[in-house]
């Protein structure tokens, strides 16, 4: 085609029925046809290899599907303290101003509390004792084997900090680098001083998702990328501290540092379950408002002692009692807002015990996630229906039915909605028209009903409870409730209601 084009240009680019022009157009059509055929052949080979490697290398499959997604548009506008930032430099300055206001230290002089004095004294004594015994006690020294052990466990393809040193540089740097790192870490521990560059992080804002405003900086979560070499030292010290931890006290069954004081919440016989915690999400449970206010006050005083603060605007309360009489719960003299429903650790809770909103959300999630995969290239015309089926069951159903182990008293209307959403997805991944009979689409690929899937998840959850260690809090609650049910100690789960 290139030679025909050069020949056409040398003849002053004739048009119409000219022989050279017709030969050039014919060569151009042939070139485009061959290009399309080569692309289709390449994509077919890619899909075939992905199909074979689905159970072996799923990372390759997801990287391919993510590349085919529509590219997300960059942030074009940011509003910081009422000021609108539109240019790139203004947006960067706006982010800097926002995060500086968040991490700004309190310059107000506050009286030093007794707890702060005790902590300062304990740290000084530990520094003095440790400094004198560091080189004399070989158990405290960081060895090359410990450094090598931590380096082997580091993951690849992780972001670096401001120094642009990644985990791969440290892992594959050789014996010489590991020896120098060992000497450096021992010097840091001996002198109780870490380089200032290890304390500088690169903050990356990540959108929290949902229907939040993208121009509001509060809709983003700042992720700090610290230097990798500093994180390696943290992991080594953490391994040494693991040997000093008292397994009887750590980790605490409820993961809260102040749960021993929270004795006014819910009791199942003699088991306290007043403050279950998942990561940094704290839930306080109580049978009356007075005890709840006491528990909130305990958390408030604890945060004041340890120099951090809860956000009253992001805290909510749910009232599950039959009486909807509202009593203000105060946190830092601000009333915690009362809501009808809220999402905790991914599970939607409704104070009216109405599960219809939860079911509608599950249906929407199932449809949208399945269509998103199909638009990314997961289509039955290029990948076998069996592979599409496994991916949808693994991804879409897990996402839509998250927490279905706790779904109780599902109405027939809700089951019908879930079945419709499942049949819609089943038709989509098989490439069937929407007018296809609904009673046969599930049987074509061996799908069970949505109700059967929920029952299966409940049985698996029961199996995990049974196989738990007896010392774990969920197992203790399960055994207590099972004994109450067996011996009819209580007619209804009264501990749920106030």
Description of the molecule:
The chain has 498 residues and is mostly helical. The protein has helices at residues 2-10, 19-52, 58-67, 88-102, 114-133, 144-152, 167-171, 175-191, 228-242, 289-305, 356-375, 385-400, 412-430, 438-444, 450-467, 473-486, and strands at residues 78-80, 83-85, 202-207, 220-225, 267-268, 271-272, 277-278, 281-282, 316-318, 330-331, 334-335, 337-339, 341-344, 347-350. It is built from 16 helices and 14 strands. Strands 1-2 form a two-stranded antiparallel sheet. The protein has a two-stranded antiparallel sheet with strand order 3-4. It has a two-stranded antiparallel sheet with strand order 5-6. α1 (2-10) runs antiparallel to α2 (19-52) and α6 crosses α9 (228-242). The radius of gyration is 31 Å and the shape is extended. The termini are far apart. The model is unreliable at 248-263 and 491-498 (pLDDT under 50). This is Reverse transcriptase domain-containing protein.
């Amino acid at each position: 085609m290139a030679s025909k084009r050069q020949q056409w240009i040398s003849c002053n680019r004739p048009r119409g029925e000219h022989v050279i022009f017709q030969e050039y157009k014919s060569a151009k059509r042939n070139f485009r046809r061959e290009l399309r055929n080569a692309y289709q052949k390449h994509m077919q080979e890619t899909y075939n290899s992905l199909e074979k490697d689905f159970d072996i290398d799923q990372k390759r499959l997801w990287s391919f599907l993510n590349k085919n997604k529509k590219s997300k548009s960059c942030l074009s506008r940011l509003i910081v303290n009422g000021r609108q930032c539109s240019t790139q430099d203004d947006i960067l300055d706006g982010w800097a101003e926002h995060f500086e206001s968040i991490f700004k230290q309190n310059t107000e002089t506050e009286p030093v509390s007794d707890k702060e004095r005790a902590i300062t004294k304990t740290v000084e004594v530990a520094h003095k004792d440790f400094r004198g015994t560091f080189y004399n006690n070989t158990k405290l020294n960081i060895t090359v084997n410990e450094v090598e052990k931590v380096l082997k466990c580091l993951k690849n393809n992780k972001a670096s900090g401001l120094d642009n040193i990644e985990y791969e540089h440290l892992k594959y740097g050789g014996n010489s680098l590991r020896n120098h790192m060992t000497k450096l870490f021992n010097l840091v521990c001996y002198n109780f001083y870490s380089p200032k560059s290890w304390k500088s992080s690169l903050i990356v804002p990540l959108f929290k998702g949902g229907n939040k405003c993208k121009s509001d900086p509060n809709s983003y979560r700042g992720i700090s990328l610290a230097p990798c070499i500093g994180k390696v030292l943290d992991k080594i010290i953490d391994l040494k501290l693991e040997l000093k931890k008292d397994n009887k006290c750590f980790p605490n069954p409820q993961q809260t540092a102040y749960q021993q004081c929270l004795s006014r919440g819910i009791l199942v016989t003699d088991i306290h379950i007043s403050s279950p915690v998942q990561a940094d999400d704290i839930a306080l449970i109580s049978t009356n408002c007075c005890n709840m206010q006491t528990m909130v006050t305990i958390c408030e005083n604890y945060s004041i002692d340890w120099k951090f603060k809860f956000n009253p605007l992001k805290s909510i309360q749910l009232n599950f009692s039959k009486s909807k009489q509202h009593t203000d719960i105060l946190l830092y003299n601000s009333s915690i807002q009362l809501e009808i429903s809220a999402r905790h650790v991914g599970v939607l809770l409704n104070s009216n015990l109405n599960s219809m909103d939860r079911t509608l959300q599950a249906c929407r999630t199932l449809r949208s996630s399945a269509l998103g995969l199909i638009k990314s290239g997961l289509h039955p015309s290029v990948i076998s229906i069996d592979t599409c089926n496994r991916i949808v069951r693994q991804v879409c159903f897990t996402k839509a039915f998250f927490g279905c182990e706790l779904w109780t008293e599902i109405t027939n209307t809700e089951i019908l909605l879930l079945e419709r959403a499942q049949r819609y997805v089943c038709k989509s991944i098989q490439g069937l028209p929407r007018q296809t009979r609904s009673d046969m689409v599930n049987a074509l690929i061996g799908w069970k009903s949505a109700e059967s899937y929920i029952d299966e998840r409940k049985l698996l959850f029961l199996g995990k409870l049974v196989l738990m260690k007896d010392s774990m809090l969920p197992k203790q609650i399960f055994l207590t409730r099972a004994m109450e049910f067996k011996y009819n100690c209580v007619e209804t789960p009264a501990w749920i209601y106030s």
